[in-house]
Amino acid sequence: MRKNSIKNTRINMEVQRELSNIIRGEIKDPRINPMTSVVSVEVAPDLKTCKAYISVLGDPDSQNSTIEGLKSAEGYIRKQLATTINLRNTPEIKFILDQSIEYGVNMSHLIDEVNKNNHQDETISDSGECIDQ
Fold it and tell me: In this structure, which long-range contacts are made by residues 104-111, counting pairs with CB atoms below 8 Å and at least 24 apart in sequence?
């Protein structure tokens, strides 16, 4: 796998910034959840295609409807990108649901529970009481 060049990294960042601005402020589709964020963007070196990783805070139905709404608005989003970003080609956007933030939050809660249980066990053993179960 090739390492991204500086130019490609800058294009990715610019497309991500503009894409998040378009989704946040210009699309009026009711299917799109207001808690939608663009996690990352990967533009191909030939500028023909783009993968946009989208995170949606909400239930799975809300996540699926948001992705459907974004897919239906792809033409409008692409046109807006063409006007705001001066590129040789405006890439075709493929929206991919990214659940890494939700996964991280769930893992953090699990770690907190384990730490809480360990802390309770330590306080019981420190008090010197023996509890029969």
Answer: none
pLDDT digits (tens, 9 = 90+) for 16-64: 999 999 999 899 889 999 889 999 999 998 989 999 999 988 888 999 9
Residues 126, 64: one domain? Answer: no
Which contiguous run of DSSP H or E holds residue 55?
strand 49-56
Tell me how far apart the alpha carbons of residues 51 and 16 are, in angstroms, rounded to a whole number: 10
The residue range of the domain holding 127 is: 100-133
Q: List alpha helices for the chain, DSSP H.
A: 6-25, 60-72, 74-84, 100-127
Residue % of the chain over a pLDDT of 90: 50
Run of H or E residues at 54: strand 49-56
Question: b/e per residue, 7-38, with b = 16+ CB within 10 A?
Answer: ebeebbebbbebbbebbeeebeeeebbeebeb
